[in-house]
């Protein structure tokens, strides 16, 4: 009996997506690579520079400081949002009108555009007229995120936690809903505590969901730009100038296209490397 010829027509359905990705990602990336090895003085004249811009970026203290701030921000976001999202998902009801209300409330922050989120928190945290800023000052706290680096960081973190913890909650709740009731029935028969149920049933079953949540939140927080630039603009001073904000300042503010292109490629490679490390570490036990 002859082997059946595989059906290849399905590839034609994927072709439009491949072309769209190529147009929106590969072609602009090639333009960035082109700028990263050249210098221009206007009049559409370019001069080959090799890896000079990459060397300057890697040796720049400005780049290292922005990268440190970006890594600190991302680590704090993951340490806050992932445990908080899991805790909220565990506390949500499993059925009834309460569940519907909770799901709607969780989805609402995700529907708000990034620039609107930044503008909302900008107004909310103003020390003179903002509800949060004025309330904190009325309680005796000296809070002014436009002048105090610590206050600016607290406001930036609070904004991101409010905006994106919902994503972790929804992913975790979907994972919890997929756990069969037989596991919980067996735990009740054995007299397992709530912590034992979480440790030995829920957490192992949530492993893949949490992997997705961590990767998504890592990539999103590492590439944050719109909310941060609307809220603080990178200030006060350079206190909240994250890597993405510094990149835009170099590209559009100073119009140094060569260094900006080299920095963006290094930025891209850092995200790929860290995402790969996250995935490798979190899936290492399964490979064993």
Describe the structure.
This protein is mostly helical and 288 residues long. It has a domain at 61-255: MetI-like fold (Orthogonal Bundle). It contains 14 helices and two strands, in the order H-E-E-H-H-H-H-H-H-H-H-H-H-H-H-H. A two-stranded antiparallel ribbon has the order 1-2. The longest helix has 31 residues, at 61-91.
Q: How would you sum up this structure in a few lines?
A:
The chain is an all-alpha fold and 288 residues long.
Distance between the termini: 39 Å
Low-confidence stretches: none
Multimeric status of the protein: single chain
SS content category = mainly alpha
SSE sequence, one letter per element? HEEHHHHHHHHHHHHH
CATH architecture level-2 label of the domain at 61-255: Orthogonal Bundle
- According to CATH, the homologous superfamily of the domain at 61-255 is MetI-like
What is the makeup of the main sheet?
A: 2 strands, antiparallel
Total of helices: 14
Average pLDDT metric: 89
Number of strands: 2
Shape: globular
Computed over alpha carbons, the radius of gyration is 24 Å
CATH topology of the domain at 61-255: MetI-like fold
The top level CATH class name of the domain at 61-255: Mainly Alpha
- What fraction of residues sit in β-strands? under 5%
Strand line-up across the major sheet: 1-2
Helix content: over 70%
